[in-house]
Design a protein that fits this description.
- With about 130 residues, the protein is of the alpha/beta class.
- The protein has one domain: Transcription Regulator spoIIAA (2-Layer Sandwich), CATH 3.30.750.
- Helices cover about 45% and strands about 25% of the residues.
- It has four helices and six strands, in the order E-E-E-H-E-H-E-H-E-H.
- It has helices spanning about 35-50, 70-85, 100-110, 125-130, and strands at about 5-10, 15-20, 20-25, 55-60, 90-95, 115-120.
- The protein has a six-stranded mixed sheet with strand order 1-2-3-4-5-6, with helices on both faces.
- Helix 1 (about 35-50) runs parallel beside helix 2 (about 70-85) and helix 2 (about 70-85) crosses helix 3 (about 100-110).
- The relative contact order is 0.18.
Length: about 130
């Protein structure tokens, strides 16, 4: 496990800060409503502001698939806002074990239209290496 400083957690996610300079979002294998998912991302944005970070590692593990309306909100609202407010520029995604969750994450990536640099990884060690470059 990559050392981090705890920022926020609930049953669906843990948000922390990695001393390498990025915010880390670890998803839990717990279903969450659309409003809960949006709230988690608002906490991520506050963590990025607090730590003056422009990068995020999202560790999907066994996260349930994200609903289409939340995927759309991420690509059309949250990501553009994070780019404008904190200079969000890089996202390393550690892929989920469930195929539908992987597809949902890739659908968000397809909808970004060049707003930020992102890559998918099998492990958090690989994602950490990419974010440190």
């Amino acid at each position: 496990m990559i050392p981090t400083v705890h920022y926020f957690s609930n049953v669906a996610a843990v948000i922390s800060y990695a001393p390498a300079g990025y915010v880390r979002l670890d998803w839990q294998p717990v279903p969450a409503s659309a409003s809960e998912l949006r709230s988690i991302y608002e906490h991520v944005l506050r963590a990025m502001q607090h730590h003056r970070s422009t990068a995020l590692m999202s560790v999907h593990n066994q996260r349930p698939p994200m609903p289409a309306d939340v995927q759309e909100w991420l690509t059309q609202t949250w990501i553009p806002r994070a780019v404008a407010e904190v200079g969000y520029g890089r996202c390393a995604i550690v892929e989920a074990t469930m195929p539908l969750s992987r597809l949902a994450a890739r659908a968000v990536g397809i909808g970004l239209k060049g707003q930020l640099s992102y890559e998918f990884f099998a492990t958090d060690t690989e994602a950490d290496s990419w974010l440190r470059k």
